[in-house]
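Long-time lurker. I teach an intro course on protein structure, and each term I like to show students one example going from raw sequence to a predicted 3D structure in token notation. This year I'd like something fresh instead of my usual example. Would anyone be willing to generate the tokens for the chain below so I can use it in lecture? Attribution to the forum is fine with me.
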Amino acid sequence: MIWALLFIPFAAALMSLLIRIDGPRRTLLVSAAVCHTAITATCWIHTPSPILGGWFAVDPLAQLFLTITDVLFLAASLYATAYLGAERHSQNDNAEEGLFFVNAPEAAFTGCLLMFLTTMTVVITSQNFGMLWVAMEATTLVTAPLIYFHRHHRSLEATWKYLLICSVGIAVSLLGNFFLAIAASADNGESIPLVRSDLLAGASRLWAPWIRAAFIFFLVGYGTKMGLAPLHTWLPDAHSEAPSLVSALLSGALLNCAFVGILRAFEVTAAAGHTAFARDLLALFGLVSMTFAAVFMIGQADYKRMLAYSSVEHIGILALGVGLGGAAVFGSMLYAVNHSLTKAALFMVSGNILAAYKTKTAGDVRGLFLTIPHPGCYGRQGYWLLQAFRRLEYF
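-- Reply from a regular --
Happy to contribute to a lecture. Here you go:
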């Protein structure tokens, strides 16, 4: 079953690059999303056995975040069918503003979307810290073309900043892997494998200074990808310039993948007897993120950037919940579900607003209740209600 979770989106990504017709390619995207979601749902009924010597497994943490990822990806794939169709038929006169790009390579976009699902699945199901690091870096590489989809100079700047800052963060987390390997090396020369189950079983033998150093580097490295302040500087630009469905996946799914990496490191650190140390750091970063977001969110005129800074705030809340411990950890997991679903929906709505108003400035968006959706969908009572609103001078 885990093999199917990994193989289906990967094979679909390769096939999408070979298909030349838009309709079958979009059908393949939705079909792969449906199959992946169905397999994940089956994992709640029958937990699959680990594969590759325990390198990949679907534990409760993986079940939760795989479910979130699949729900969001399925919604994004359905959204993408209409979005890509609108892009194909849009006019070149909007290309200068970075709103549309008629000749965008849809096949590459679809392939990168499916590879994005593949790499996120690897991150979430990986029980080996080395494999988790490789998959985390792969998510950076496959999402960069998605952010650069509109081929505008602002998209290029956002993509470059995303690649540069996240690559630095991933390099820092690689040092965390090195320190974890040192912490797992025993005096008799028999090292503990960097697999979650083995590390938890031998946590009492991990060297204290090195496991603490490893957690710091994991927190800083994966925290950069997660969007924890002050390491969040790539996030507002990337979320603002990416297509709205990509922004939804970045905020609702990708940030969770980095959160999973931090939670894996926290689990091992806590098992080694350094729970208070790890919680204090998480609480500190959480409070800093909430403060940064509150300060910068107020002055945002771009509604997509405002949603991006909102993600920084919510990510801080997730870190703070784990840092507080106890019932707050359950609250943090529940909050992760709510934030992912709500923020993804808001980004998709922002895409509809952008398509209707051709602007990302919040002050230029007025009369939204009358513009989106069409008045006819409200029925007769809704129609007359909208007629009354039209008489208001504000609209």
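Some talking points for your students: The radius of gyration is 22 Å. The chain has one domain: 2-364.
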